């Protein structure tokens, strides 16, 4: 006899292999030393993404510093 | 008046690019769910915030060129003196940096059209949006600078 399972029940994963196994462990386990950007709320299946985004933001901050200094130093010419 | 209109265009473009950033962030967060059997995100229509931002950026640059032509026709030339040269050079530098931001936006648009990975697109849009906000802040600073200098 077939049984219709509501999506909310299927999403919990308690009634069978509806969900693929999580990679990288849960929130407290599977610590592999990789920094995770908490502000992005990304799943563990994308381990390099948070680090790539963080490096890109750091690069932008480094690149913008001389530009901002150049514009702000123009205050002396007014 | 033209300068304030240009400023309003830039502020609106800053809002639209932030909306694009939030949309791509949400898309990146939901993308892994598509691999789950039985889960569908539906055929969501996305508003082209990136394209709107690009258009507004180009509109700003066109407005700047128009302001320069009006200044030049009013006797305020690039070689008219130290102060006039300073204004032209400062606004030109800002315009060049904004043009670089527009190129980054266009690359983000092309990446979306070519269906690049959403993570890669998100990085491009995120960095470009923060860069754009910096450019907007710089423009407001330049405008205030000129306003105080004129008094």
Termini separation of chain A = 83 Å
**What structural class is derived from the secondary structure elements of chain B?**
mainly alpha
* Strand proportion of chain A: under 5%
Largest sheet of chain A: none
Helical content of chain B (DSSP H or I, runs of 4+): over 70%
Dominant shape of chain B: elongated
Helix content class of chain A: 25-40%
Overall number of strands of chain A: 0
Calculate the mean pLDDT score of chain B and round it: 85
Identify low-pLDDT runs of chain A.
9-40
Distance between the termini of chain B: 17 Å
Query: What composes the largest sheet of chain B?
Result: none
Strand runs of chain B, count: 0
Radius of gyration of chain B: 19 Å
Structural class, judged by helices and strands of chain A? mainly alpha
Low-confidence stretches of chain B: none
SSE pattern of chain B, N- to C-terminal:
HHHH
List the helices and strands and how they pair.
The complex is a heterodimer of chains A (78) and B (151).
Chain A: H1 7-12, H2 49-73
Chain B: H1 2-30, H2 49-73, H3 82-113, H4 118-150
Helix pairs in contact in B: 1-2, 1-4, 2-3, 3-4
Characterize this entry briefly:
Chain A is mostly helical and 78 residues long.
Structure characterization notes:
The complex is a heterodimer of chains A (78) and B (151). Chain A is an all-alpha fold and 78 residues long. Chain A has 2 helices and no strands. In chain B, 27% of the residues are buried. The mean pLDDT of chain B is 85. The two termini of chain B are 17 Å apart. Chain B contains 4 helices and no strands. The chains are: A mainly alpha (78), B mainly alpha (151).
